[in-house]
Amino acid sequence: MRIKSRISLSVIHIVLLLTSIACIIPIVLVLTASLTSENTILTKGYSLFPSAITLEAYRFVFKNPVQIINSYIVTIFVTVTGTLLSIMITAMVAYVICRKDFFLANKISFFIFFTLLFSGGLVPWYILISRILHLKDTPFALILPYVVTPFLVLLMKGFMSTIPFALIESAKMDGASEYRVFFSIIIPVSKSGLATIALFSVLIYWNDYWLSLLFIDTGKYVSLQLLLYRIMSNIDFLNSALSVANTSNIVLPSQSARFALAVVAAGPMLFIFPFFQRFFVKGITVGSIKG
């Protein structure tokens, strides 16, 4: 029996190892391709082990470092501020609708779920942000639309539903107010769920370029993702112009620049995700079971 268990465990480990390698290889390929010269990629193709390492693509991308640094600052500010607001408001809404003694809990839950299926449309949304709230060309136009995400509210509700209601009742019997119950009891025992929605919020804010494209006209508050998209569009346009002009002696780092932009855009997230992974798996599992 022990031999069969060891064999089964070994097979599981081998499968997980191969799966991990399969997930790591694309990341390594992106990194090595960004460090490979454009001519090498065009002649020899992509390789996990480049014959020569060059920073040509990164020098081209960071030709105007002030603009990229400014976009990094804007994106970091929007991500941190939006994530903190999203965590707090999402937790408050989820706590309210998971309370069994709140008579409007089911109706509010249905309203939140309804917004997952239908929306008011792009034009009313644009008018609300730009004309009514007057947030156009401000960082808050990049923060406000994602502060409350229905999916995250329902996910957090499923997690908070696992908290025994007797815990809340005993705190109320001891004279604790609703604020005391929420901040002193609910929040500390909901760290896994909060870390899960925090990771989702970070990814939503960090990878967003749509809000910046809609509401930001000046270059001062352009997000990192939109700036990188514009850089890549400019490279493609210049390559098209050079091909029309038959200037074969000039080669812009088109392919290598794509991978360099991917490293610049996704690099910070690769370092952040491992810190949330333990809470993320637990929060997703509990929330999906009880949701």
UniProtKB/TrEMBL annotation:
It holds the Pfam family BPD_transp_1. GO terms for biological process: transmembrane transport. The chain crosses the membrane at residues 12-35, 72-98, 110-128, 140-160, 181-206, 257-276. SUPFAM superfamilies: MetI-like. GO terms for cellular component: plasma membrane. The keyword Plastid does not apply. Signal peptide: none annotated. Its main location: membrane. It is a multi-pass membrane protein. Residues 72-263 form the ABC transmembrane type-1 domain. CDD domains: TM_PBP2. PANTHER family: ABC TRANSPORTER PERMEASE PROTEIN MG189-RELATED-RELATED, POLYGALACTURONAN_RHAMNOGALACTURONAN TRANSPORT SYSTEM PERMEASE PROTEIN YTCP. This is Sugar ABC transporter permease. It comes from Paenibacillus ferrarius.
